[in-house]
Amino acid sequence: MRRKEGNKEEDILKAATEVFAREGFHLAKISQIAEKAGLSVGTVYLYFENKDHLLQRIFETLWEGLLDHSQKLIETPNLNALEKIDGIVDVVFDTFAENPSLGAVFQKEMHHVSNLKHTPFRTYFEQFISIGEKILAEGREQSLFHPETNLHVAVSFIFGGLRFSVHQWTLHPDAESLVIFRTGIKKIIRNGLSV
Amino acid sequence: MRRKEGNKEEDILKAATEVFAREGFHLAKISQIAEKAGLSVGTVYLYFENKDHLLQRIFETLWEGLLDHSQKLIETPNLNALEKIDGIVDVVFDTFAENPSLGAVFQKEMHHVSNLKHTPFRTYFEQFISIGEKILAEGREQSLFHPETNLHVAVSFIFGGLRFSVHQWTLHPDAESLVIFRTGIKKIIRNGLSV
DNA sequence: CCTTTAAATGAATTTGAATTCATTTATAAT
DNA sequence: ATTATAAATGAATTCAAATTCATTTAAAGG
């Protein structure tokens, strides 16, 4: 019998990420993805049930990576809440630094994915938010943070800011601007704008 | 001859905003919009060239309002940079407080609109960003802000945070949480999380 | 070097909603 | 009242792209 050559599933996901990043999910054509992956339209359907599932798998991998690293981070001893927040910023930027297209897809298509039926994506997002809230609550207990800050508001603001900044960074994803974004964002989260 | 009853154009835009907010642009059906506006599918096309133009008009009105108010704000004498930033937060929340669905559409569909050909939307966004950068530069000159903060990073982060927070607020758009979001966000932008 | 069968192909089919347009309705002018 | 015509309707058409599947290709086992 014939055997599979290379790793087509991976090739397809990589191609899909790039096409979704450039075109957006709805304008992306399966034919474009197939071409970029170097195979035919029909083959895409041997590996993925449909277009939605492609996006779903991309987000699944992404979220699992983010949550896994974040979970390890908050369990690290000898880190205070401020250091953990810096760690979260690093987790996010490290994730997207190795794959800038993923940052664009994350910014553009998260809402589409969370609307899909039969997906655990609202749960993933909620877990991430809940990790954020844990860190902030911890910081408050350690008297590092303003006690009156509303957790939900703070986490929403930081999540949105981080996500959009990553997206902006992906427009010119070089190493130098990566450092500027990372450090700039950490500084704002800690100290805000004012002196 | 027959004359137009009421303001159908307005009815359609209002209905479209609600349907786009709930379903997202691509899943929204013209038939749903027509039904919610209390008229037929064909009538929608008497008032708008196509589905894209509906979204386009919604964003046009939205951006013009935001830019107009922001422009007036930065020209107001006797406001320092910190007060101007508070003003921007207020402009944004005032805009969406009177129409929470607009906040959801703004968060979900901005990327679709900026991909449309023949639209000035990248320009609108750039103008808004440029207003933000002006305020930050001013604050730096007034020695109110950390001199080393990167303007582009700070503005991206704040824009993203503000946009996503508004979207989160629209999920439970009551007056009490509005105040909590407004004040919480202003505080974080000024002072960050740490004491 | 056949034979078997999994893998791959891409043209043909299906689908589903955007858009159109022939027909109907309602108002204003005469 | 009648007529002219703008406004409105919604069933029929169009269209583009997702999905399918009959056919072809190529590796592995005998």
Topology:
The structure is a homodimer of 195-residue chains.
Chain A: H1 8-23, H2 30-37, H3 41-47, H4 51-75, H5 81-97, H6 100-115, H7 121-141, H8 151-170, H9 175-191
Helix pairs in contact in A: 1-2, 1-4, 1-6, 4-5, 4-6, 4-7, 5-7, 5-9, 6-8, 7-8, 8-9
The structure holds a DNA duplex (30 and 30 nucleotides).
Q: What's the quick description here?
A:
In chain A, 75% of the residues lie in helices and 0% in strands. By secondary structure, chain A is mainly alpha-helical.
What does this structure look like?
Chain A is built from 9 helices and no strands. Chain A has 195 residues and is mostly helical. In chain A, helix 4 (51-75) packs antiparallel against helix 5 (81-97), helix 4 (51-75) crosses helix 6 and helix 8 (151-170) runs antiparallel to helix 9 (175-191). Helix content of chain A is 75%, strand content 0%. Chain A has 2 domains: 1-48, Arc Repressor Mutant, subunit A (Orthogonal Bundle); 52-191, Tetracycline Repressor, domain 2. The model of chain A has no long low-confidence stretch (mean pLDDT 94). The longest helix of chain A is centred in the N-terminal third of the chain and has 25 residues, at 51-75. At the A-B interface, helix 6, helix 8 and helix 9 of A face helix 6, helix 8 and helix 9 of B. Chain A binds a DNA duplex (30 and 30 nucleotides) through helix 3.
